[in-house]
Every structure is written in C-alpha cells, then in structure tokens.
Amino acid sequence: MTRILIADHLDQEAVEELKKVPGFEVTVKTGLSEAELVQIIPGFEVAVVRSATKITRPVIEAGKDLKLLVRAGIGLDNIDVAAAKEKGIEVANTPAATSISVAEHTLGLMLGAVRHHGPANLSMKQHKWEKKAFTGTELYGKTLGIIGFGRIGKEVAKRALAFGMTVLAYDVIQITTDLPVKVVSLEELLGQADIITLHVPKTPRPILGEAEFARMKDGVVIVNVARGGVVDEKALLQALNSGKVKAAALDVFEKEPPEDFSLIDHPKVTATPHLGAAAEEGQKRAGMEVARILKEKFAG
Hints:
Blueprint: E1 2-6, H1 12-19, E2 24-28, H2 34-40, E3 46-49, H3 57-62, E4 68-71, H4 81-86, E5 90-93, H5 99-115, H6 117-125, E6 143-147, H7 151-162, E7 166-170, E8 182-183, H8 186-192, E9 195-198, H9 210-215, E10 220-224, H10 233-242, E11 245-250, E12 269-271, H11 280-298
Parallel strand pairs: 1-2, 1-3, 3-4, 4-5, 6-7, 6-9, 7-8, 9-10, 10-11, 11-12
C-alpha cells in the first residue's frame, strides 16, 4: 500500500483518479502548519503540495517513510530540496502544466498596468466617472523585456508578439528559440525595455534592485508573476515614488501574505494574491500530471 498525503488543494478529478488506483491510499489534509505536518507525515510515502504548504527540513526528517515529494506547479522553492536529497527522497514538479495560465495572467496584468484597469475599477465602484484621469498607452509598438526565457517566458513572448511588441529576451542560461525575439544582455534589456516582466525561479538576491532600476528608461512598467524576492520591494517603491517606474503589476511578494502593504497601497501598483497559476485549466493539467507521476512510479 502506498500512502499519499495531499497537503494542498488539488484538482478534484485528479484526486479521484488517484483514489481509483489499486494500492493507493489517498489522504487529503490541507492548511497544515509545520508542527502539524511533522506529526502527520510519518507513515506516508508521498506528499503532494502546491504553493501554500512548506515541506521543510523538520518535516522531511519526520517523514521516515517518504520516498517522493511532488509540487503541483512550477518551481520547488517551498520544498527543502537539499534536505530531501540527503534523505534519498525524490522530488518532482509539473513545470509545463500551468505555463499558459501564468503567461495569460502576465499579459492581463500588463494590460491592466498600462490602461489603469485597477484604479479605474476602484473609481467606478466609488460611483465616480474619471475618464480623463485614466488615459493609458498601447502595448503595440512597445519594447518588452523578458527576464527568464523558459517555458513561461516563451509563452509570454508569443502573446506579446501578437500584440505587435518588440521582444527582448535575457536568461542566465543560453537561449534557444525560433521566436522572432532579440536575445540581449541584462544591461541591454534594462536600458531598452518599456515594460519588464520576470519569469525566473527564486533567487538568493533580487534581480532588480536599486542599481538595476537606475539603468532603466524613465517611465518603465514592471510586472512580476515569478517569485517574491526577485524584485527588491523597497527599491521598487523608491522607483515608483521618483517616477522612474510608471507602474507596477505584482502577483508575488517577499512575504506571502504581505505584512507591509506600503508597496501594494501605492496608487501606481496593481496587485493580485499569487494568482498566476490559479486557472481551472492549468490546475487540472497540474493535477493530472501529478497523478501520472505517482502512477508511473508506484503503480507501474
């Protein structure tokens, strides 16, 4: 019997698919704290999470029977991969399942930022008609700088090209693509882009900090649907206050949920609560990919 703990919400169809597999015992318990996970994890061979639950070293050390940790999503920053490796526990994720979901959310935030959707919506809900206050700009003809040109970066590029944008791409690894984008250095991207969007994993230090903002064009727009901490929030707030950054659209934050709302409260910031992958279709693909991974490993 393979005991599976699903610690975050997973697509229900995928859960039912797993429950039908002979030899699988599936337990769904969400919203567990680290202490609660430490208590419950012994006896489970598999733990499945999304982004809310953190699989920390104490949890891994308590999981004497763990063989596999799976993240239904992109990235592994909520799993202590080093601790898992030390214990010989395999770690997997579903990097392709929600790429389109995240890319579409990125374009939505980008459009909202340049056309003032957030403040205009709030104004209307206050029964105001401030049409002249919310004149924006088009995406057409603008230069988009994409930092991180993996699966999501490429999906964003496809959609930006359809809007008639010029696309610059930068990554720390060599970029190979058939898309009509220009591969540039980070310095070139910072100096040329009208809009900058990030699609990178969690980094030890911010990719965009005070020095990077200083290199950007005046009136640049910043979009972050990657990970909190890849943009220095204090430096971004300073850049917004100085006018260097015209607007920012943020889906992720250094602390989630945030404790300091000074950046989110800025009138030029549109914020969403880490919704990048939160589309029904993407979550269904992620859930079914988790089911496939578990069936291949434990059910042949």
